[in-house]
Task: inverse folding
């Protein structure tokens, strides 16, 4: 935090009168309002001070006459928010994609959903809305109609990249998705291939966008827990914890220590089962079906533990504002421990397999290399970043739940290839097992939840959680009623997709699924 | 013993033709042999059975149970799948090369089945006189042509996945046919004949024991020829959906899949004939044809189980890696093993005379 305050002091000196106001977003996040145009200076300055800085999210909030844009910059392990306001009628602002290439998708999303035009953006196409969505309706604006949206404009209005065929005769357009065996969820990636080599990747997401950010505004906080839980089935605990932390921060509620430990346990169980799911899936992608079946068999006990702990296998509904909803039965603790010990032995076996099996090595080592510089430039998060040697982990940088009391290692590999990304996950499973075992041994007694009022005082909060796929970011703004004013959700996969485009170019088409799996994309997260 | 029965049978049939009186009953035997046993029907049933065995082995190795419900232990599942595909809607996409698209699967299937004519299954060939000096080369050529037809079926589909799958078939075929041919010649050297029946009849000790290196390499080349892991790139479903099969539906898909399954059985059968002594084995009592068929099926299943084991323990290679395995490793090794087999045959061949 000391670094941050120094940076802020220098920053306010440089910006001078362009800086309008500083305030604190809960918990302990600095917000700096600047004039339009000065946001670039501020971001430039932060980037100069900290080479590891990147963008976490861009939040747009409809304030009525104006649209507030918040650039959440990740630096020194915390978040600095640079805010600015543009008028709604003439919503234009300079793009920052040239400063941070990772901001590309964030700007396109804001432009789609709030109608802010980013001047100088290299590729200002639609990202989330369908091509035939009316040009003048922006869903996240408060005055946007929710019903009776004119559907299906004429074909001429569509500027979809479906029809854009590359002029180069040698390139074949191989479309991956929206329905494709390598993708479990529907998104489209057009690969322009020359022979077996991929020359260009054109992503198109948003096929299953559900407008959850908009939907949260019409539901109470309590209902929203179950809504955000359904953003992603695999990492549902991360979403609920992240949302509840934000709301608790606005309320100023401190949850009991036992609840913190129970949250840690469920988060780590989630991480184990998500990583195992991915590793098995990776086996399938490289044509190693036996590995897939073995790992998924060994994942079952974890699902069993979750069922016993929470009552459900997948969507656990375990977290609530003020703590957790169920207590852990004492007599079940030894059973969890033995199951985890067994899993640990099996992870050793899989580790040996990934290290020694020649076909796995040949398919993943040196394939899909993402260098550390590119990883920082594209602002990737989670195991993808750690596989490239970038040491970021919200659990260490800004400990939440009980992570400040538990010892664990942040796994990093410097190779940056698909193999390194798989190994990060393998090792993280073992770390997670250790964390759970520590938490079970040191589980504090006492209540597991506190009762909280239904209405939430006005305020804003930022919450971050290390989901299995990386940093999950929530921004919650409350207006004092029992409905939130704005909930911004930035999921890890949304930050990681740009890296796929970067890695896949120049790769063999046969490596695309393996590379794709190594990024562990979750499209139900991306299309929230 | 089977050799004797073969000679006896041929002798009888010649006698019958000479007499000219029993021609009707002879024709009936021939038709029975071609259509029922050990011809068409037997081969198809054997294929379905082998398919079931394959699926069961793979499932057990992967901690699954495999087909369970159709017939005892799911043994009728391949047949059920085939019939299900037959009754499905048949869609021919708009832009395909019509003739090739429609007929390639069936012609390919018939080529594979025709190749069985030259393989002794119940001690004799399906048509008694069909063996001749050089039918080994004919069988291998027929297999290549049938494979090429599979390529054409994908190429005619005008679908990017099919086209890429088809080019992969062709790339892999041109690469792995060469070592396969070379390795198939090693037993021919040992037996001093290019006729499969003769090679079989001269295996008093299975050639797999005399030249095990050639047998091992042959299995690897076969694995590539049959497009199984780690060489199943032509239909790598996570990359190119179903490869050359992508646009096929209904009965054409049924025949395409059947052709692939028959190809697997044929590949294993060639391995059995060339290296494992074909249908020969101890005959305990009763008809030697029965025992020969039993031994043939048993050896076939052993080969299939082994290839299925290989399939289970490897990840899929990339097409360039597949090719470099071939040109850098398999081809030189197969040439060496052929030379070694020729050396062995120098002191072995006088034994035949």
Result:
């Amino acid at each position: 935090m000391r670094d941050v305050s120094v940076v802020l002091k220098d920053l306010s000196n440089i910006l001078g009168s362009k800086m309008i106001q500083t305030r604190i977003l809960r918990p302990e996040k600095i917000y700096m309002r600047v004039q339009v145009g000065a946001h670039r200076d501020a971001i430039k300055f932060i980037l100069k001070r900290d080479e590891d800085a990147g963008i976490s999210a861009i939040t747009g909030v409809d304030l009525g006459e104006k649209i507030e844009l918040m650039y959440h910059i990740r630096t020194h392990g915390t978040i600095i928010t640079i805010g600015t306001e543009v008028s709604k009628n003439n919503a234009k602002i300079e793009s920052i994609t040239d400063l941070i290439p990772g901001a590309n998708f964030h700007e396109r999303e804001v432009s789609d959903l709030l109608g802010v035009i980013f001047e100088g953006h290299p590729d200002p196409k639609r990202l989330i809305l369908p091509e035939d969505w009316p040009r003048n309706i922006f869903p996240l604006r408060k005055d946007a109609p929710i019903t009776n949206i004119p559907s299906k404009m004429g074909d001429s209005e569509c500027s979809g990249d479906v029809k854009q065929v590359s002029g180069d005769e040698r390139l074949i357009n191989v479309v991956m998705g929206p329905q494709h065996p390598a993708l479990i969820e529907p998104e489209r990636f057009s690969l322009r291939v020359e022979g077996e080599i991929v020359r260009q990747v054109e992503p198109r997401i948003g096929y299953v966008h559900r407008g959850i950010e908009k939907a949260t505004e019409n539901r109470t906080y309590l209902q929203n827990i179950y809504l955000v839980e359904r953003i992603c089935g695999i990492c549902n605990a991360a979403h609920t914890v992240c949302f509840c932390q934000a709301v608790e921060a606005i309320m100023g509620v401190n949850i009991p220590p036992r609840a913190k430990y129970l949250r840690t346990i469920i988060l780590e169980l989630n991480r184990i089962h998500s990583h195992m799911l991915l590793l098995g899936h990776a086996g399938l992608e490289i044509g190693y079906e036996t590995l897939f079946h073995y790992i998924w068999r060994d994942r079952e006990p974890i699902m069993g533990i979750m069922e016993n702990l929470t009552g459900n296998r997948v969507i656990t509904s375990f977290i609530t504002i003020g703590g957790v909803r169920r207590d852990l039965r004492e007599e079940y603790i030894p059973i969890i421990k033995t199951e985890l010990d067994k899993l640990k032995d099996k992870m050793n076996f899989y580790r040996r397999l990934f290290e020694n099996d020649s076909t796995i090595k040949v398919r993943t080592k040196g394939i899909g290399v993402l260098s550390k510089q590119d990883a920082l430039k594209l602002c990737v998060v989670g195991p993808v970043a750690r596989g490239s040697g970038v040491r970021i982990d919200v659990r260490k940088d800004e400990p939440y739940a009980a992570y400040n009391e538990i010892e664990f290692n942040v796994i990093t590999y410097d190779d940056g290839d698909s193999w390194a990304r798989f190994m990060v996950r393998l090792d993280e499973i073992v770390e997670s097992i250790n964390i759970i075992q520590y938490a079970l041994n040191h589980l504090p007694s006492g209540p597991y939840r506190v009762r909280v009022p239904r209405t939430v005082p006005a305020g804003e909060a930022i919450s971050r959680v290390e989901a299995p796929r990386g940093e999950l970011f929530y921004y919650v703004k409350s207006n004092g009623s029992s409905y939130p004013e704005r909930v911004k959700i930035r999921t890890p996969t949304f930050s990681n997709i740009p890296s796929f485009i970067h890695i896949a170019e120049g790769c063999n088409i046969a490596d695309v699924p393996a590379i794709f799996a190594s990024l562990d994309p979750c499209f139900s997260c991306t299309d929230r | 013993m089977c050799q004797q029965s073969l000679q006896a049978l041929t002798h009888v049939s010649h006698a019958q033709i000479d007499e000219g009186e029993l021609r009707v009953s002879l024709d009936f035997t021939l038709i029975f042999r071609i259509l029922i046993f050990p011809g068409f029907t037997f081969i198809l049933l054997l294929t379905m059975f082998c398919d079931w065995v394959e699926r069961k082995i793979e499932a057990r190795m992967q901690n699954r149970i495999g087909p369970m419900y159709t017939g005892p232990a799911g043994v009728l599942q391949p047949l059920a799948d085939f019939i299900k595909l037959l009754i499905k809607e048949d869609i021919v996409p708009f832009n395909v090369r019509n003739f090739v698209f429609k007929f390639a699967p069936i012609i390919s299937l018939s080529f594979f089945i025709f190749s069985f004519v030259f393989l002794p299954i119940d001690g004799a060939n399906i048509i008694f006189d069909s063996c001749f000096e050089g039918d080994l080369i004919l069988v291998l050529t027929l297999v290549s042509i049938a494979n090429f037809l599979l390529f054409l079926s994908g190429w005619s589909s005008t679908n990017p996945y099919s086209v890429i799958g088809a080019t992969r078939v062709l790339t892999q075929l041109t690469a792995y046919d060469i070592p396969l041919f070379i390795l198939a010649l090693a037993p021919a050297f040992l037996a001093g004949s290019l006729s499969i029946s003769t090679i079989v009849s001269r295996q008093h000790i299975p050639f797999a024991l005399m030249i095990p290196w050639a047998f091992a390499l042959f299995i690897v080349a076969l694995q590539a020829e049959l497009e199984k892991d780690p060489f199943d790139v032509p239909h790598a479903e996570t990359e190119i959906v179903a490869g050359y099969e992508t646009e096929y539906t209904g009965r054409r898909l049924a025949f395409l899949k059947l052709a692939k399954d028959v190809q697997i059985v044929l590949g294993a059968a060639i391995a059995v004939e060339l290296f494992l002594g074909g249908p020969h084995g101890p005959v305990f009592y009763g008809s030697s044809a029965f025992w020969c068929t039993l031994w043939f099926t048993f050896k076939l299943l052993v080969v299939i189980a082994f290839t299925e084991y290989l399939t289970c323990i490897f990840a899929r290679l990339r097409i360039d890696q597949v090719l470099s395995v071939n040109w850098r490793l398999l081809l030189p090794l197969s040439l060496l093993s052929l030379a070694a087999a020729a050396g062995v045959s120098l002191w072995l061949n006088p034994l035949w005379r």
Notes: The CA atoms of residues 279 and 296 of chain B lie 4 Å apart.
